[in-house]
Amino acid sequence: MSGRHDWGASGGSHAAHHALRELVIAATVRIHRASVGYDLDEPGTFLGSGFFIAPNWVLTCAHVVHGQEGGEVTVVYESGPGEGPSAVPGRVAATLPDRVEHRGRGGWPAPDLALVRLREPVGHDCVYGSERPTAQYGEGRVFYAGWTVTGGRLEILDGFLSVQGTIGGWSSGVQMRLGQNDLPNGVSGGPVIDPVRGEVIGVLKSRADNGSGGTSTGIERLRTLQVPPGAVRTEHDDVYHAVFHAHDRYHRDRQQPSESRRPTWADVQGELGARPGRALDPDRRGELLGRLAELPPPDSTRALLDLLDSLPNFQAPSLSPAPRGWRDGLGLLYESADGDGALKLVLDYAMHVMAAERSATPSNLTAEQALWDWVKQASTALDPGYRSRLARQRAQHLGQRRVRGPDDSCGASEGREPGWPQGPARDAGAGPTVLLEVLPRGWEPDRCDWSISVARADGEVTRLHEAERTPLDDLPTHVLGPLAEAFRRCDEPGRPVALHAALPHRLLGLAVDEWEPRPGGPPLGAQRPVVLRCSDREQVPGDESAWPPDPYRGADPAGPPGEPAEDGDEERLDRWNRLHARDALAEVLDCDDGVREPVPAVVELRGLPPRTVPVLCRFGDRRYDDDSAALGRIVRAGFGVVLWRRWRSQPDAVCGEFHRGAKKAVDDGDGAARLPDLVHGLRMKVREGLTEAFWADGIALLYDDPRQPLPGTGDLLEAP
Q1: 118-156, pLDDT tens digit by residue?
Q2: Measured on CA atoms in the order 362, 363, 368, 370, is the torsion positive or negative?
Q3: What local confidence, expressed as pLDDT, does residue 278 receive?
Q4: How far apart are CA 303 and CA 519, in angstroms?
Q5: CA distance 435 to 480
Q6: What CA–CA distances, in Å, run from 93 to 70, 459, 624, 646?
Q7: 403 HSE (CA, 13 A, CB side)
């Protein structure tokens, strides 16, 4: 670790500079060969440096990862201060240039950049990448960080370099010449930071052949990544948008209230006195970029340039590379006006983005409304004539959306993100299902009885296997063999039978979908639809277990523990039928933008609309509420479809991506009946290492059809 730094005329307090340095160090990683093994500090496998540019994405140099697109590497990082190194596999997703025929004397040709996609979801810090062109960076000094080998040990190094000019000219933004410090082997791929604004502007590319210093590539060169063929309908159609939309949402979510006491990039930028242009402070800029990143990206660079040209009193500078995403367009506005004019230009841009052509899916309409809410709040101090014009624009925009409808231009089905299952919905009553029933032994709480059956569409149930007194901890070992036989009886080519796991409410957290029939092989949830059912719905306790206790609430309207609510079966069946008759809407019940909340009482849950699919973000975060009690209240209130994830994150982890992903999956999907197949598709994507599905890591689905009661629970319910 380097010693004391002289920040000189960088501006801001010493404490702010120290905090900025800590943020940079936290996000800077080592790149190793895929064969790193168990010794994470082995210099022999070390390739170079990189940094987290977005959740589960690392930016580095192409020469560090040998420029092999699709090549495997290992990323070594720290998930928190003092927690020691962790390793995660990564795959090279893109390089610039995308192929190299001959390497010259200067090494890998510019821009020499690579994006590495993590193969598994992990929690980590990310840098803040500038949205302004490097051409707007003034001469002076930059801060850098990277890993190197010193005395046979891997250590992180950081310091300052002077900006001594460019290679290729400012407008091209290809490379900066840096000097006045030695750059040892290994730091290539590390971040280059503007210490005045507190944002990453480049990537260390190489060191000088003679003397000190080296070169840096501006991160805006990522805009030149190859544009995929076909229309860009979602961010995951284009790796550039996938990275920077995730980046902007991450920093927006990190700024929300949370239990973490660690400063964010926006906090530090505020302490530095940085201002993104003349209209925004770091907080407002982060919020705006996060809301822009909720919308689908521009159809093309040409469409974005046309939008910028349509702004009043603005002429976009002719910079290369041209802007590619909404954040790039915003970065071009920063130096273009003064006073109220600067803010009006930003608001006009936001209004144009809001009105851009896109599918009118529920998630897109929600994102447009959120952007409008930001515009309204930001415009309160402007003149009434301008505010009136904004209101008229919004009304006109809404009118156009109503006329066009949700299926015009790029319909909702075309706008669905990758990983959503396509084709006709699986009819739950059209074929057999495999049923696993688990019953804990009350007098031996660490043991259970279990059985495996095949349930036919006509209601006939054939018991295949049963056992008693199995240790709960060893349940997968005993169950997987008989399950395999049941699957062989029922699977059809291309259509694996669904597994229904009937569990008492106290065991609904059992991760049946993660059981591996073969060690290291795909888990059950990636092989077939796996859903949960509640086998003791009538025995779920009332609200005496709710957190926190409410002394002002009277007796539980649902009745005492063990007593079914009056007309509970009819209420449950009615909710099920109405949910499956119309589009579903997700409702996160236990988390408000990262702040843990108690699941509402049964009486409040019963008041939720019939189309509601309850979503739990913090299942397994046992610091406050008992998970089985919280989920039990939802079951007791008559819900047969519930979505949640098993909480695996640290206290300062953000959860915005899970909220967003769950709402898009439910709200933009083809109805509740498709959720078992949709969740199966997401689990397959997580298994395949596709970053866009990592929000669904640990996802679980209760899908408990009241028209198909479990054996021994009563007669088949008739739908009215």
Answers
A1: 999 998 999 999 998 765 565 688 999 999 998 889 999
A2: positive
A3: 83
A4: 50
A5: 13
A6: 6, 48, 40, 28
A7: 7
Compute how many other C-beta atoms are within 10 angstroms of the C-beta atom of residue 245.
26
pLDDT digits (tens, 9 = 90+) for 583-594: 899 999 998 877
pTM of the model: 0.88
Start-to-end Cα distance in the chain: 71
What pLDDT was estimated at residue 313?
84
- Tell me the three-class secondary structure of 404-429, residue by residue: HCCCCCCCCCCCCCCCCCCCCCCCCC
Three-state secondary-structure class, residue 664:
helix
Give yes or no for a contact between 140 and 160, defined as CB atoms under 8 angstroms apart: no
**CA 131 centroid distance within chain:** 20
Q: Decide: 265 and 283 in contact? Cβ < 8 Å.
A: no
Instruction: Please tell me the predicted confidence (pLDDT) of residue 170.
Output: 47
- Comparison of pLDDT for 546 and 456, the residue scoring more: 456
The C-alpha torsion from 358 through 293 and 397 to 335, rounded to 10°, is -120
Angle, CA 141 vertex, CA 136 and CA 147 arms, to 5°: 110
> Six-digit token pair at 105?
């004397």
8 Å CB contact between 703 and 673: no
Query: Which residues share a beta bridge with 48?
Result: 31
pLDDT of residue 426: 54
Determine phi and psi for 546, rounding to 5 degrees. -70, 150
E strand or H helix at 659, and its extent?
Answer: helix 656-667
Exposed / middle / buried, residue 182 (Cβ in 10 Å: 0-12, 13-18, 19+): middle
DSSP label of 101? S
Burial class (CB in 10 A: 0-12, 13-18, 19+), 15: exposed
Taking each helix axis as running N to C, give the angle between helix 282-292 and helix 265-272, from 0 to 180 degrees, rounded to the nearest 10. 140
Q: How far is CA 8 from the centre of its chain?
A: 38
C-alpha span between 45 and 48 (Å, rounded): 10
Task: Count CB-CB contacts under 10 A for residue 20.
Answer: 25
Helices 656-667 and 239-254 sit at what angle, rounded to 10 degrees? 120
Output the 3-class SS for 151-217.
Answer: CCEEEEEEEEEEEEEEECCCCCCCEEEEECCCCCCCCCCCEEEECCCCEEEEEEEEECCCCCCEEEE
Helix (H) or strand (E) holding 377: helix 362-378
Total Cβ atoms within 10 A of residue 288? 27
Q: What are residue 29's DSSP bridge partners?
A: 50
The pair of structure tokens assigned to 612 is 């509601």
Residues 254, 90: Cα–Cα separation, whole Å? 24
